[in-house]
Design goal:
By secondary structure, the chain is of the alpha+beta class. The chain is 47% helix and 12% strand. It has 19 helices and eleven strands. The chain has helices at 3-16, 20-33, 38-50, 54-67, 71-83, 87-100, 106-117, 121-134, 139-151, 155-170, 189-204, 211-221, 238-244, 271-280, 294-306, 331-343, 345-348, 410-413, 418-430, and strands spanning 186-187, 234-235, 285-289, 320-323, 353-360, 377-382, 397-403, 435-438, 444-449, 452-456, 470-476. The strands form three sheets. Strands 3-9-6-11-5-4 form a six-stranded antiparallel β-sheet. Helix 4 packs antiparallel against helix 5 (71-83). The longest helix has 16 residues, at 155-170.
Length: 482
């Protein structure tokens, strides 16, 4: 190994331990001795970027690009200018990188996202189609194709692409190309509790082949720090990830959830009257009981109970999640999303499904804090039987009848910062906002203006896997002027 390679390796090792000052010291020395070394400039630019020194980072990236027009330099500079909102320069850099095809799927993945943000949806979809043909074994290519199709309103095509991505990423077995993804590293004790309960539930129902999965979970759970709180997120060590990755956050069982013949929504409801009630509420708010046909409710609840698709464990409050782009794009969910605008055309207007997810809660932990969503219409509904709820007057949703101001940054009011929440509550009080509580009921939906502040109500559910509160959320459209 050359001296230069050795010094760069040393800098990377320091970065791996988050020792930014030590890594930069090594790189500064390299660049004093060998000015213009592209690899050193890219590494140092990354350090500056992590510190928020964007102009200094850009200077290093541009020097690296001038010295060697490499794909790595194109991508580093492209991502920096994209973060500043300069989408057209980012698009040009990504396009040049993608045309080289020497860095796999990543340049095209970034390019598709920028094309979509620029409103060039047809071009984004065509490029995503090409990407999925060039890299058919890469989940990111199929994910971009799903996003492009969904932006065009093709939910069935989107779901098919997302399913291909899900199968590639989540199939059990060694993941040499994927093991670096955070989804295989991050966990918490509540996630282990959920997964082991679900695996035991499946085993009791005769689903075979789960014994090695259960043993692997039990072995790793025993190694979690004793002081770790249920919702406290932890990074598993690399050696644990390597041994555990064939089983952790993989799809070991998927229960079918086909579309329901004759429709998923309850045809006996007076939908025109419900639509009128939505608009009479002022800000746009409605709850509907018995909104799914019984067979749709049963099928979707079974899908959530039995499918091992609960990969998201990034929530300090311990709930686990599954998303439309990663396991939740079953035909029944697509059917519900397509039927809603037909039943309530004035409420949904031109707004198509933006995203959908389900969260499953721990009976001992709390739910989602106050926030508003940058969409047009929210749909929340609950699948868990009423008997599981120990307090029939709670466990649902709390809403305030005031919209987040259009000039507020969504990142501001969706932060978990307690001080920010206090400011929002003070603003709501000044505005005379009325707080409304919609208690949990099985097969109850709450449909409301996405700009309304809302949070999960207090949760007191019985212990036991089948008693876990399951909430499904669908977001439609983007708020006008947002």
């Amino acid at each position: 190994m050359s001296e230069l390679a050795s010094r760069l390796q040393e800098a990377r090792a320091q970065l791996g331990q988050n020792r930014l000052d030590a890594a930069q010291g090594v790189l500064d020395e390299v660049l004093r001795e060998q000015p213009g070394t592209p690899a050193a400039l890219l590494l140092r630019g990354g350090i500056h970027e992590r510190r928020g020194a964007w102009e200094t980072a850009e200077n290093d990236y541009r020097q690296a690009l001038a010295a060697e027009r490499s794909t790595a330099a194109l991508l580093a500079l492209g991502q920096l200018v994209q973060r500043r909102g300069e989408l057209e320069p980012a698009r040009a850099l990504y396009r040049e990188a993608a045309d080289r095809k020497d860095q796999g799927v990543r340049p095209g993945y970034l390019l598709c996202a920028v094309l979509a943000r620029l409103g060039r949806t047809a071009e984004a979809e065509q490029f995503a189609e090409d990407l999925s043909r060039d890299f058919p074994d890469q989940d990111l290519a199929w994910q971009r194709l799903g996003e492009a199709r969904q932006a065009r309103g093709d939910l069935h095509g989107a779901a098919a692409a997302f399913e291909r991505a899900h199968a590639l990423l989540r199939r059990p077995g060694p993941p040499p190309a994927f093991v670096e993804r955070g989804t295989f590293h991050r966990t918490n004790r509540a996630k282990f509790r959920h997964d082991l309960e679900q695996l035991a539930y499946l085993a009791e129902r005769g689903i075979g082949g789960l014994e090695p999965v259960i043993r692997a979970y039990q072995e790793v759970e025993a190694r979690l720090p004793g002081e770790l709180q249920p919702g406290e997120i932890v990074q598993m060590p690399a050696r644990v990830v390597e041994r555990f990755s064939p089983w952790y956050n993989r799809c070991h069982h998927r229960e079918p959830a086909p579309a329901i013949a004759g429709g998923a929504l309850n045809p006996e409801l007076d939908w025109p009257a419900l639509e009128q009630a939505y608009f009479r509420s002022g800000p746009g708010m409605l709850h509907v009981d018995g909104w799914l046909r019984p067979e749709a409710l049963t099928a979707l609840r079974r899908y959530c109970l039995e499918s091992t698709i609960w990969y998201d464990a990034d929530h300090a409050r311990g709930y686990v999640g599954s998303y439309f782009h990663d396991g939740f794009a079953c035909p029944l969910v697509v059917q519900i999303a397509e039927e809603l605008p037909r039943r309530l055309p004035r409420v949904f207007g031109p707004h198509g499904l933006t995203t959908a997810w389900a969260y499953k809660y721990d009976s001992e932990l709390s739910g989602i804090d106050m926030h508003a969503d940058a969409a047009a219409v929210n749909v929340n509904f609950w699948l868990t039987p009423d008997e599981a709820n120990l307090d029939p007057q709670s466990g649902g949703l709390v809403l305030w009848d005031r919209e987040a101001p259009a000039d507020w940054d969504p990142d501001r009011y969706n932060r978990a910062d307690p001080e920010e929440k206090r400011r929002i509550l003070a603003w709501l009080e000044e505005e005379g906002a009325e707080r409304r509580t919609v208690p949990h009921r099985q097969n109850r939906a709450v449909i409301f203006n996405s700009d309304l502040f809302h949070r999960t109500d207090d949760i007191r559910f019985r212990p036991g896997y089948e008693n876990r509160r399951i909430n499904v959320t669908m977001l439609f459209g983007q708020r006008t002027g947002r």
